[in-house]
Amino acid sequence: MTKRVLGIDPGLLHTGWAVVDTSGQSRKYIASGVILPKTTLPMAERLVTIFRELTKICETFEPDECSIEIIFVNKNPKTTLILGQARSAAIVAVANQNIPVFEYEPNVIKKALTGAGHADKSAVDKMVKILLPAANPKTPDEADAIAIALAHTNMALFTYGLK
Description:
- By secondary structure, this protein is an alpha/beta fold.
- It has a single domain (3-160), classed as Nucleotidyltransferase, domain 5.
- The chain contains five helices and five strands; from the N terminus they run βββαβαβααα.
- Strands 3-2-1-4-5 form a five-stranded mixed sheet.
């Protein structure tokens, strides 16, 4: 049975998203992109942009599951709070479509793809290219979203027993 996974790399300036199909050990790239709320908009309207765009993505691609990165605490608490708001807008947009949301810490995502929780960005990018050669991300946020979706397909297979 094929499952469609939506991966999200949340951010207030750039929210990366990716859709990947998975069936057993097989992975297929479907689509990806970046949501770019206008920086001139007030905070609430930027969050609504993320919510609305992810809602459209869910309606268009009909994912079965969603994986999203858990934010880490930055040195600047204000930055962490703002990122948390963007993440919340993304989660609510997906959950509002009755799609289960799975959350992963950055080191878990890296380990699921490379086998090392502290792998660098180039190692993650290399595994994305190996697993999904059809994916050609144009931005780091898009690449991260693809990695988050792929990590979920690996984690779901082994942790949750999803097929």
